[in-house]
Specification:
Elements: E1 13-16, H1 23-40, E2 45-50, H2 56-69, E3 73-77, H3 83-92, E4 97-101, E5 110-117, H4 125-133, E6 149-150, H5 153-163, H6 166-171, E7 175-179, H7 188-195, E8 199-203, H8 224-232, E9 237-241, E10 248-252, H9 260-274, E11 281-284, H10 290-294, E12 302-305, H11 309-319, E13 323-326, E14 330-333, H12 342-356, H13 361-372, E15 376-383, H14 389-398, E16 403-404, E17 407-416, E18 422-429, E19 434-440, E20 446-453, H15 456-469
Parallel strand pairs: 2-3, 2-4, 3-6, 7-8, 7-9, 11-12, 11-13
Antiparallel strand pairs: 1-5, 4-5, 9-10, 13-14, 15-20, 16-17, 17-18, 18-19, 19-20
Length: 473
């Protein structure tokens, strides 16, 4: 822990509520943020939103009061909203920056802050450092006053209507089930669809501080309520958004989880080839290498970055990329804005399947698998409280193995955090036979291990090897 007791990760600040995420520390960060806006901003204007977690609205109001006390104009949301609406407000309202009080997909015991730039994308590493360096530089200024709040939703929906072919979706007769996971997505996606005559039904559409007893990450093991609804009714597919609705998970009409790696491939092909959006593609190290096979270098550049959407966003801005994706369900679209948006991603997905002409999502998946082959990818999350877990990747980076699970190693690629410490390591096998990625979380006592290989058995062997590296911690 640094001298401030506040650690900024790959996407802002997330930690346990009570300590260190509490009113006092929120105000300290807000004062540091105010200093950053004064030094770097042009309009001295900031958009602020919040999710449905315990104290999120209180924290957002306190953050706003600190900014107002520092003579910064504040646009504060009048309700719980998804993070993407703050990103959009930064652009539409010409703000210097945005602030979202959320811990995204983390468990209910967590809360935190995401920072957005004037372009709607996450703060860069340097911008985050600038805020962190200002913590406690000045005493907190705070005004206990009422802050006017406004609607961020109306203009966002108008923006969506310019980019999505709702007529095609409605004409297909698609009927979708939506699981907002009791998060900030609420009934927004359903309402947008119904505005255009598209049938949609939402479960867990009321935001709850405990997310209805689930971890608000839209992956298979957390989406059993959605799977049950799909199996008991006739829907084309199920769409799920995470705690702050910037990520998307998908299920077939039969209630089966759709491999997110496949979703990345399909969306990339549709968005870049059928929609003909120009520019490179950006993927994190945890995204399937089949994306590179789908888009040869001669056709379109595929850029690989560390895990964390801020790295995708930075690359999308730098290279004017068409599309960016991470395996945890985050998608960025160049014509929208360079940040994750679970609502917009769901709409692009529905537009894609509507235009495909298929009567079921299973039929579309079958066609694509015949075209691209099967992706053999998996991931495991290991709970690990041992401080020594941080040293494992450093050791492997210094002395990399020659083989892993019987596969010959081609190279190792280390990834570092904002303090220069290795928090990720990718081991790439020769002849494109597979890869193993290991990451130590900085916001949870967790080690995440990812692998892709030529078969399910080989992928499992790589994951087992990855697990073994942490067996002594």
């Amino acid at each position: 822990m640094n001298k401030h007791g506040i650690i900024f990760g790959t996407d802002g600040w997330r930690d346990l509520m009570g300590s260190p995420v509490n009113t006092q520390n929120i105000r300290r960060v807000a004062q540091a943020f105010a200093g950053y806006v004064h030094d770097e901003g042009i309009r001295q204007k900031v958009a602020i939103g919040f999710d449905g977690r315990t104290s999120s609205e209180v924290y957002a109001t306190d953050f706003a009061r600190v900014l107002v006390a520092n003579n910064i104009e504040v646009l504060l949301s009048d309700r719980i909203i998804p993070t993407p609406l703050v990103s959009f407000a930064c652009i539409h309202e010409q703000c210097d920056a945005g602030v979202m009080i959320t811990a995204s997909h983390n468990p209910p015991a967590y809360n935190g802050i995401k920072f957005k730039s004037s372009g709607g994308n996450p703060f860069t590493l340097q911008q985050t450092r600038e805020v962190e360096s200002r913590i406690d530089r000045l005493p907190v200024r705070f005004k206990q006053k009422s802050i006017p709040a406004g609607d961020f939703t109306r203009e966002y929906i108008r923006h969506l209507e310019k980019l999505i072919d709702f007529k095609a979706i409605a004409g297909s007769g698609i009927h979708v089930a939506i699981d907002s996971m009791a998060g900030a997505g609420a009934h927004l996606l359903e309402n947008v669809l119904r505005l255009h005559g598209i049938r949609a039904d939402t479960i867990f559409g009321k935001p709850q501080a405990d997310f209805g007893g689930r971890i608000p990450e839209p992956i298979a093991r957390n989406l059993q309520p959605l799977a049950t609804k799909l199996r008991e009714n006739r829907y084309f597919c199920g769409l799920a958004t995470d705690g702050d609705a910037d990520r998307l998970g998908i299920m077939t009409g039969a209630g089966h989880w759709m491999n997110i790696q496949e979703c990345i491939l399909y969306l990339a092909e549709y968005y870049c080839r059928e929609r003909n959006i120009t520019g490179p593609l950006v993927k994190t190290a945890s995204v399937t290498d089949k994306l590179n096979e789908l888009f040869p270098a001669a056709e379109r550049r595929v850029i690989e970055v560390p895990v964390g959407f801020k790295y995708i966003a930075e690359s999308m801005v730098e290279h004017q990329a068409a599309f960016g994706a991470e395996e945890s369900g985050g998608f960025g679209f160049g014509e929208h804005f360079p940040d994750r948006d679970g609502i917009f991603s769901a709409l692009v997905f529905l537009e894609m399947v509507a235009r495909s002409g298929h009567q079921s999502l299973d039929a579309l998946i079958c066609e694509k698998r015949n075209k691209f082959g099967v992706i053999h990818y998996n991931r495991i999350d290991l709970k690990n409280n041992n401080p020594l877990r941080h040293k494992v990747l450093h050791g492997l980076s210094k002395d990399p193995p020659g083989t892993v699970a019987g596969l010959e190693v081609d190279k190792t690629v280390p990834y570092t955090n904002s303090r220069g410490n290795i928090n990720g390591l990718k081991i790439v096998m020769k002849n494109r036979s597979g890869w193993l990625l290991m990451r130590v979380s900085e916001t949870e006592p967790m080690v995440r291990i990812y692998a892709e290989a030529g078969s399910e058995m080989a992928t499992g062997a790589l994951l087992k090897a990855g697990r073994a590296y942490f067996a002594g911690t």
